[in-house]
Target: DUF58 domain-containing protein
Amino acid sequence: MSPVDTDGSEQAAVRFARLRQRIERHLPALTRMKRPETLPIELGRRRIYILPTGFGVGFATVLLVMLVGALNYANNSALLLTCLLGGIAVNSMLTAFRDLDGLRVCAIRAEPARAGENLSVQVRLDAGGRPRTALQLDGFGGHVHASFARADESVTLSLPTRSRGWMKLPRIRASTTWPFGLFRAWSWLHPDIALLVYPAPETDGPPAEGIDEHTSRRSPRDGDELAGLRDYRAGDPIKHIAWKLSARHHDLLVRELDRPDARDARMLDWQRIRGLSYEQRIARLARWVIEAHAHGERWTLRLPDTTLGPGSGSEHYHRCMSALALLP
Model:
C-alpha cells in the first residue's frame, strides 16, 4: 500500500470517529454506541425501542383503507371492526415491549476454543418472574430463538474466532415480534466481557522428544545401563543372570537394567524449536500439549519467561494453553 493510500485510510477513520462522536452526543439513546457494560445488564423502558415491521406497515395501510371506507359509507359495523383491529394492534405493541422489559443478562461464559474454531458462548438470562416468548438474540453473524417461563435460562451463541488471545465480546441484539409480528421491539446488549482463545495447533509436524531431566524417575526396566544386582526370582529371564558374580555367592544374582519410566515428564521446550517463526513455534507447542494431554502423559512446558509443570490432566492442560495464548 502506498503512503498516499495509507494517509487516505487514516483520514477516513478520523472522519468516521468524529461522525460517531457527533451521533452519540445528539442521539445517545437511539444509537447505543456506548462503552461496554458490566454484568448484570437489565433491560428497562429507556433502552427498549419499537418500530413497526413490514407486515405491520401493510396492516396499518389496510386499517387506514378500512377506516376511510367505513367513514365514507357511514358503516358502523365496519368502523367498529376497524377500531377493534386497531386496538389489538396497539395492544400487541405493549405486549412486545413487556416481552423484553425487565429481562436481565446475569452471566456469560464460554467453553475453550482454538483460533479458527467457533467459540460456544453461553448467555444466562433471568426472566424476572415473567414468561418470555419468541425472543431472538442476534450476534456474531447468527441468531438463536428462545422461549422460557422459568426464572433463568441459558442461550448458546456461536462466535467465530480468528486469532489467539483475549477477544472482546461484540454487541448482542435482543428482539421480539411477539405476538403478531406487527411490531419489532429490540435492545442492544454490550457486556464488558473478554474471552480467551487458545492458539491453533499446527496440522502436522515432528513429535515431541526428550524427557525432563530434572523430574525423570527411573525404574528397573529393560535398557542399556546396569542399575544393580538382586536375588533371583522365579520367572526372571535367564539372560539377566550374572553368572560370574553368582559363582562367588551361594545364590543366583540377577542384573537389573533401567530405562526412563513411561510416566516421566516430557519436556516441551521453546528453545529446542529451531527454524520456525514466532507464531509457528506457538502452534507447534500447542500441538505437543494437545497430544500429551490426549495420551495421558506428564509434561513440562518451558516458555521464554516461565516454566509450567511437570503435570498432567485438564487443569495443567488449560494452564499451558492459556500461557501460550497470552504470549506477547
Confidence is low (pLDDT under 50) at residues 213-225.
